[in-house]
Amino acid sequence: MPQAPTDYTPDSFKVLLKKLVQTPNDFTPEDCALCFRHLCVQGASDAQAGAFLTALTLSGLEASAEIVAACAAVLREHAVQVKDIAPTPGEHKHGEWDYRDSDKEGDGYTGTVDIVGTGGDGWDTYNVSTTAAVVVAGSGVRVSKHGSKAATSTSGSADLLMSLDCRLSFPVDQLPTFLPASPFLFLFAPHYHPSLAHIAPIRRQLNFRTIFNDALGRGEAGAGDTFAEVLKLLGVERALVVCGKEGLDEVSIAGETWTWWLENGKITRGSIHPTTDFGLPTHPLSSVRGSTPDLNALTFNSVISGTTTPPAHLSSPASPDSPSLDAIRDYVLINAAALLHVSGRAKDWKHGVAIARESIESGGAKTAFEGFRDASKMAMGEQVDVMVVEDDGGVAAKNGFVKSWLKARRNGTGTETPQGDEV
Question: Is the pLDDT of residue 395 over 90?
């Protein structure tokens, strides 16, 4: 039987910490879970918390799938629960997002997906997972992205979205209003893990990877097997764990990426390459380097708007001192394609690239982002000017992704329908 919260004290934590430091081989997943329960109820001092995270890293136990899964299970116990946020299948009201195309029978997975890198891989690349998430949402796949502010990089996902005029502190009871407005939803980690708010400053002061990064994935190939096994132990239905061979925690645009595909309880190891598997050119990682949140926001708007004119802080082509819009766009496409394939929306990697391009070129990605931004403001009680458009084959207010308009637009511009993406 679990101890009562009043029993989680610095004195009881001291015993566990001593065991970890002096006899790490005897430190069990149950011990680690108990340590995390102490952390969640502030039953350890800041010094003890820092010592625990450091000792766990140095012990090598963070490479144990059972250890990481035990910690993740405790975090789930103490997290704010998110339920019943998806619109009713088949229902579509004027001014809401039309999911009928993406929810076709046989189209694959129709739940929600997430895409996230841990940061801390040392490359400080552009916010590719956040942008890719919006691009995927623009195709009608529901993306509930979990993220936070930067811990070791210049710009985290939350930093970028706040620079884009989004609100992230909306009440949890407002969540059901989001997915009818947009397939993109952002869950700001501190609001859903309030029990760990006091740990964030400690992690920043340590400034090295800890088991918290393991719980999200890492830019090290050795952690791929661990992370895939953790997801399996936690009952995840389908997942793709990736590690760029440069030590990147995203799908690399520079070269090969190691992969661990989890489906039906089976883990399959492999690798993917930008050109061979996605049909995209390679770019050096220096060409997809990130910047401040405000400058990354300019890049974000350029990518989802489909413009070919780069903002002033990017070069065309890339130079040693300046990333390029073309390289960052391809970086977004390759990661969006991976998520589309995992979601079941795309039959393979190249089909994922085609759908991601269509999301950008059709305006779907921009529409998905604006829907989330406006919904986040309204959830905070702010007044938002919403354009009212009749259902005339255009993009409906707030903002239905109307396939007849996309088909007409493709016919008018000569753009072909991506293979398998029926309209």
Answer: no
